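[Backbone geometry]
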Amino acid sequence: MKISKLFAVLLGLILLFVICGPAFAGDKTPQDTYILKGNPMGGVKFMHSAHAKDRKIKCETCHHASKPEKAATAKEQACSDCHTKVAAAPMKTNYKGAFHDSPMAKKGTCIDCHLAENAKGKKAPTKCNECHQKANV
């Protein structure tokens, strides 16, 4: 009798884990991976450690000092905290402009670095759809 109760409880727990397990699994995206959203071409998956640790890019390259007219509220903030889709005073640079200095994205923070890496013989994405992907939501 005790074995059948133990078996029933064990079977119930296994069933509970099978049914509820996916809900607790959460997002499989590593904590150092960010999806930069907002572009109709798709989001950009940005792997922080691949840039900061592996390639030793200085923090200030992306996390620039705040401007006096828009003081930072944290040491390192999301770009979108200040750079909104449409630049709102006192900001002059919109969200897209924070990454791409020209309308065709031929220069800017990301593409300049990727082009420089490719010139050194490394492989960095330089075409729009290599970074912007609909799957990155």
Remarks:
- Strands lie at 33-36, 43-47, 132-133.
